[in-house]
Amino acid sequence: MGLFNKVLASIGIGAAKVDTKLHESQLSLGESITGVVEMTGGNIDQQIDDIYLSLCATYTKEVDDRKVTKHAIIEKWKIAQSFVIHAGEKKQFPFSFSLPIDTPITVGRTRVWLHTGLDIKNAIDPTDEDYIRVQPTRVMNAVFQVMENLGFRLKEAECKEAAYHVRKRLPFVQEFEFVPVSGEFRGKLDEVEIIFFPHALGECELLMQVDRRARGLTGLFAEALDLDETFIRVTIHEQHIQTLQTDLAALIRRYA
Fold this sequence. Notes:
Number of helices: 4
CATH class of the largest domain: Mainly Beta
């Protein structure tokens, strides 16, 4: 019976199971992800090589003129290694990690989750997935509020594969596309795209792309060649929040 159970466990029947329980499933960037990994032994004793947690996110990639969804690992942590889980035994492994500051926030089609995996030799590795809602930093929230105050509406937010000269640590960036629906920029701009590169909780670099609306034949020619798009880099600190609306309006106005 022991050999038969071992064969069944190798294909996942009667094998050890894993279940990760998060203390909070909604977190702001920089906060701690805390919880416990619960393991339950199967019908036989099994050697576990590793328990690891991977923070993952989705992003899109252009392949043959079509968009495909890809998965990226933002961070990976090992929480246990090399132990035996006995038949029917229960074990718990508490964990606490800081949510990386460059994790994309949960908006639009973006999904962020914690993947739990066990490494078991000669067997199917048990896994578990737990989704997380990621909230922006105070600086990012301030930018969103200012764009709304200036008459912009968030049209789309998407994680996209990034060119090597734009990306930082991750293979993608999260783009926020704003369109002017009221205020002074309506009729002057097609859109403003913003990418956040947080350096710390109270500091964030913005890459802004200002897309001017075509005016006349010259404007149409510029638009056809993508010459109507202007890229701006600016770093915002928490102490700038009080004057952020005036500063961003002046910056966009300069390139409108």
